[in-house]
Amino acid sequence: MGLLTALEGGHGDRGDAVVVDGRAMSWEELLGAAGAVAERVAGAPALAVLARPTAETVAAVVGGLLAGVPVVPLPPDSGPKERSHILRDSGAELLAVPVGERAEDAEAVPVDLGARSSGATFAEPAPERPAFVLYTSGTTGAPKGAVIPRSAVAAGLDGLADAWRWTADDTLVHGLPLFHVHGLVLGVLGALRTGSRLVHTGRPTPGAYAGARGSLYFGVPTVWSRLTADGTAARALSGARLLVSGSAPLPVPVFERLAELTGHEPIERYGMTESLITVSTRADGERRPGSVGLPLDGVRTRLVGEDGAEVPADGESVGELQVAGPTLFAGYLNRPDADAESWTADGWFRTGDVAVIGADGFHRIVGRASVDLIKSGGYRIGAGEVEAALRDHPEVADAAVVGVPDDDLGQAVVAYVIPDGTVTGEGLTAFVAERLSVHKRPRRVVLVDELPRNAMGKVLKKQLLDRG
Ligand code: MLC
Ligand code: AMP
User: DSSP 3-state helix, strand, coil percentages of the chain (rounded to 5)?
Assistant: First the structure.
């Protein structure tokens, strides 16, 4: 059986199995449109998909997966610098776009929701074949392509179905972007594998969540925190079965307020692009504020100290979280250097997150090893990539970017810039937004005469963070 077991299993008679931003499709329609894409792209080395939150995006992704062609989601707002990097690095010459749209830098594959496949069938690709190449930020440089095997997607989704008792009886609701693990792998493929109905709300606003009448809701902490600020919308979720938070730490007050307003203690789960979801609290278990719970079925975790020795799971000792198991990616595309840094000699993946594990196995994420990976609204943003974009400006002498604690976004991107001319903060924000995805632009630019540095010349980001 294929990756999208329920979809391919032919439960085709539900008229609104997938609703994206108001556009409803039955599974039969989805399979028809996706089948036409699959016939068009079969044999290609990769298929980039312009990943707007639309039904066309879902059909294009499913088409690539049916044909066994690795799918490369392209953030729809990525500026030319980021976009050309993703297309070039992934080797994707085809770009799926809604029918009638053109693509200037790739061969357009038109996605037509009215199309029907000619009925060609495709052999199920080998489990080790890549399902996706997902571009994700490191601390420096351009985003890296994480190669995600089909077997990892299958294992990850089955682990979550088990932990969350996620079945075809659920209606999944979310409004997250369709180019990351959360919104795309869990939020679309999870529904098509378990057979649950999917309602994608276009944007993850409190009003849209309240109106969607789902049983299972996904959100990043910013979404949950904004929902709790709207008591009426939050109370509308009291009829749901499960609220799930992830992609960044859920503040304890938001957990508590959500429980108070909806009657549901949220599930918190932890993961990464590279590992998919590895740790979660369970539908039938304790949901502890500030804790991400237990490893999913088949996943192994350990904590390692700075000296390389394993740290005890005693609820107090802190170490870098390392993970192993069937949900892990195969490596970074074209980046043996990044692979060498990320994998240990004995085959564990170094998450870069710092954690504590209790004697009862519960995991608590306490921070990140590097200040240069920022999480803002659940988006992962590399300080180095934003700094490089700022330095491309002719009137910037130097720049340092930090993630400042922020009640709404978790962290906000703040840039300290030494100007070399008359440039303004606003001008620089717009300059970054034109080059990279818009969520990477600084929320605030502080113009300074110099940056604090240590004797080696390295910028002291801790000092910048202390300035706020
Ligand atoms: C934003 N705006 C700015 C700005 N930044 N304007 C000027 N300067 C800036 N620096 C604008 C926006 O364009 C928007 O305008 C308005 O301000 C509000 O922006 P916002 O505060 O960013 O809110 P919003 O756009 O609503 O975004 C919040 C959010 C979003 C939570 C919806 O951050 C989001 O979708 N996050 C999800 C990220 C995600 O899915 N991560 C998963 C990674 S996978 P306008 O005009 O548009 O209103 C992963 C693995 C795992 O992590 O574990 O899941
Ligand atoms: P990404 O690659 O965008 O998927 O981001 C992965 C990172 O998000 C992880 O390395 C963590 O730092 C962070 N993250 C995801 N889920 C959680 C969570 N529940 N609590 C804390 N951090 C999280």
Answer: 30, 30, 40
